[in-house]
Amino acid sequence: MSDTKHLSFADTLALGGMTLALFLGAGNIIFPPLVGMQAGANSVTAGTGFIITAVLFPALAIISLAINKGDINELTRPLGRAVSIAFISVCFLTLGVLFGTPRTATISYEAITNGAQSTLTQKTVFSFAFFALAGAVLAKSGKLLEIVGFFLSPVKIGALIFIGVTAWIYPTGALTSAVDAFDTHPFGTGFINGYQTLDVISALCFGAIITHTLYQRGIVNAKGILRYSSRAALIAAAGLVLIYVCYISMGAHTLEHSASNGMQIMSAYVETVFGVYGRALLAAIITLACLVTAIGLTTGTARYFHQITGISYGLLVTLSLVLSAMIAILGLDSLTMLAVPVLSAIYPAALVVVALGIVRKWLAIPTMLYRGLFFIALIVGVISAFI
């Protein structure tokens, strides 16, 4: 393929919008309002720390993957095949079918029912319908950029920006008071909260989707992959900063001072400002956000395991969707207790892999040094997560 192959401005913008939409799962949307509420008058300082780890680090992860030809196996090659496969598999399985993907249906269901009592049958029907819809989109994998980039992403992002900017212009209350660590160490606490989004691992999954989408558009050379992946990362980062700033401001001016999560803050705001239709609007946005993230996690995980096992991509997608639907029905409380520590344990190692993937473009890193840094980070992560 010629190196002169280019994406149009519209396609590049759609690729960036798709990347942004993949990141904006429900967890990412409900995190910033809670940070804003707890930081209050210190929300600017705390928000800066949050944005560094929740936006800058994931953007660098996409760029690091692009530097390595968009191939996660190439990124982790110095670890050796066995360690590389084990590490990436744990990342993708935990973030995907065993936790992250099922959670998208559970959060959507809770947003729609607003905590109302429901039967197992209702949960089952919703869960399988949700993932059937995701499967319908994935069945058109060659049209992923058109469906997600040109249609779902603009609707989802536009609605989030509309609510966010409204919250910025029309706050519902005065600034809250900073509490606990946000009062004494706002920057560091915001930094840690952004770190806990664990989006660097998500970026490794989504970066592979970007690369595959570029292949489908005829961009197969290393320079083109790096160029357009970097542009997509920058577009997504700009969108994340805008949305996070607005939703941190929403939390910093909330009237729900006793809220325990960001969903409660958002619900209170939309109901106050938009009335009876606000709640329906929020439920629709959360469901759409979760659907796009479920699509991204499913296709990223399926593509990786297809690459290393040779099992049919379609079969892997089907298995992932069915398992995710079943796990979502069973409930995720116990899974959350198991999955979050695992992700937290491997996260420092993922950061090292991302950093070294960038450094390797300019400096030759001895294999033993690469492996040593990786295992030190992994040990630190395990100790911090489980002790």
From TrEMBL:
Keywords tagged on the record: Amino-acid transport, Cell membrane, Membrane, Transmembrane, Transmembrane helix, Transport
Entry keyword annotation includes Plastid: no
Pfam families from the UniProt entry: Branch_AA_trans
Membrane topology according to the record: Multi-pass membrane protein
Superkingdom of the organism of origin: Bacteria
The keyword Membrane is annotated on this UniProt entry: yes
Residues that span the membrane, as ranges: 12-31, 43-67, 79-100, 120-138, 150-170, 190-211, 232-254, 274-298, 310-332, 338-359, 368-386
Protein localization: Cell inner membrane; Cell membrane
Major site of localization recorded for this protein: membrane
Role: Component of the transport system for branched-chain amino acids.
Family: Belongs to the branched chain amino acid transporter family.
Protein name: Branched-chain amino acid transport system carrier protein
Organism of derivation: Pseudocitrobacter corydidari
